[in-house]
Amino acid sequence: MTGTDAPFLRTLCSLRWLAVAGQAATILVATWVLGLALPQLPLWAGVAALTLFNLYAQLRVQDPDTAPVTAFGHILVDVIVLTWMVGWSGGIANPFGSLFLILIALAALALPLRWTLAVAAACLIGYAASGVFGLPLPSGYFTGAQMQQWGVVCNFLLSATVVLVFATRLAIALRQREHELAMLRERFVRNEGIVALATHAASVAHELNTPLATMTLLADDIADQTESSEVRDDVETLRELLVQCRERVLALARPAAGDAPGRDPVTLPQVLEQWRLVRPTIALKRNEDAPLTLPLDPGIGHLLMVLLNNAADAGEKADRPQVDLSLRIEGDDLIGEVRDYGHGFDARQAVLPGTLFNSGKTDGMGVGLALSHATIERLDGELWMRPANGAGTRVGFRLPLSPRETSA
Questions:
Q1: What is the pLDDT of residue 90?
Q2: Deepest of 185, 209, 288, 315, by most Cβ within 10 A of its Cβ?
Q3: pLDDT of 380-394, one tens digit each?
């Protein structure tokens, strides 16, 4: 058992309060309604001891560092108090003696096998001790058979309530843990692929740096030797593309954590200028009130580039080379959406909440979007995809901004 089992201890505390209330009510009913001459001092002392222990347990249960021995100690106290209460109120003739089974069931559902066996052994010893040393059940207003019948009914109702409450809470906790484990496995697989891709990209970047530098020099030589203005313009565009490629290659050659501290923020005009240089044939439409001067995390700039390229690819395949970009600030969040005019996608194959897009289901959605999703996750944001009106796809995101960035 680790710190994640604190809900089990909290559940034990809740059930223990139920036991305290049930024991107090049982003593009062048995004494005043059934007319049983039960020893009051030992029984109320047991109720008081369980109450004090539960108060102490609730203070300690806040500590997440728990172990199986801690939970066993909690249940052992319950076994001792139950043995004491049953022993002073009829021993094995007391129908509530079967509550030892509830403690064994609780242990079996939450503790490792050896600790469950230890709880079972403690319950057997407690039950045997209450039978051997327990006081006989005194006579009252009803016959022994009648009290036994009503005791069995009350014991069944109480046992059913305890099992239902505990099993429900434990099932919810187990489902939450399974969901968290599934998310962690998915994140691990994705991050493992991203790390492998980053390592490969850094290796390739070192190999491409030299030929790109040589191509830049050749472009300069061609520009110096030609007399045609059209050729000069084309060579200048080629040179800008080569410079941009070299910058990207140098960025890949840096440590694999591409979002490491120290990288300068970017702005929306810088990102759009670089994208237009690469995709000059795509018509880009953006909202006029976009936050142009807002400094963006480099990861957000990469996210915009990937989404714009995906949208451009989808539009070109459908012979509608147009992309719509919308950016706005709502409160402390940056809300963005990229709309393409491609063939769209089947909404039934879209994303489930909290998961990545199904690969191969949309135009252009590949490694770039996986990297973008990792960026969104790192910045504690959201990423979604919806069909656009008419045709195409809308891919949106929400990212929290710091007060310094929002005020800019």
A1: 80
A2: 315
A3: 888 888 888 888 889
